[in-house]
């Protein structure tokens, strides 16, 4: 079993692709068949497998989640109690709960078994820059 940690610096909300870095990890591991587990070590961001061809898809997803869960200072979010870390914090936790903090991707013929337009993304939900850690674990 092989493991590494990727550091993804973010500059605010949005999707940050790391497919190439995960693919490089698989290539270095020189494993033909296995399962890559991807895990983010935070509670206010998440992981997605999403289209990597048209940037409009990423923009629309970000806009959808902003509309679905607005900042806690929005009148529709008056019920939120956890506001100590700012108006984007509890909404970020909700968005992370609605998406995934871990993913599994098969490895076939030494490569990630992603579809033609699929990519791996960190989905940042906080407004301020962060340094996010993603653990890649390759099992046979």
UniProtKB/TrEMBL annotation:
Gene3D superfamilies for this protein: YjbQ-like
InterPro entries the UniProt entry points to: UPF0047_YjbQ-like (IPR001602), YjbQ-like_sf (IPR035917)
Pfam families on file: YjbQ
PROSITE patterns (alphabetical): UPF0047 (PS01314)
Highest taxon of the lineage: Bacteria
SUPFAM superfamilies: YjbQ-like
Family from the record: Belongs to the UPF0047 family.
Protein known as: YjbQ family protein
């Amino acid at each position: 079993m092989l493991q590494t940690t990727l550091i993804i610096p973010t500059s605010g909300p949005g999707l940050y692709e790391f497919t190439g870095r995960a693919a490089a990890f698989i290539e270095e591991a020189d494993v033909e068949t296995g399962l890559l587990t991807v895990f983010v070590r935070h509670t206010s961001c998440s992981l997605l497998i999403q289209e990597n061809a048209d940037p409009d898809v990423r923009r629309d997803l970000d806009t959808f989640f902003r509309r679905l869960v607005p900042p806690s200072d929005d009148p529709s979010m008056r019920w939120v109690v956890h506001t100590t870390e700012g108006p984007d914090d509890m909404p970020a936790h909700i968005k992370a709960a609605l998406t995934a903090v871990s993913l599994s991707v098969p490895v076939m013929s030494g490569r990630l078994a992603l579809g033609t337009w699929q990519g791996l993304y960190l989905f940042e939900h906080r407004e301020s820059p962060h340094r996010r850690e993603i653990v890649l674990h390759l099992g046979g």
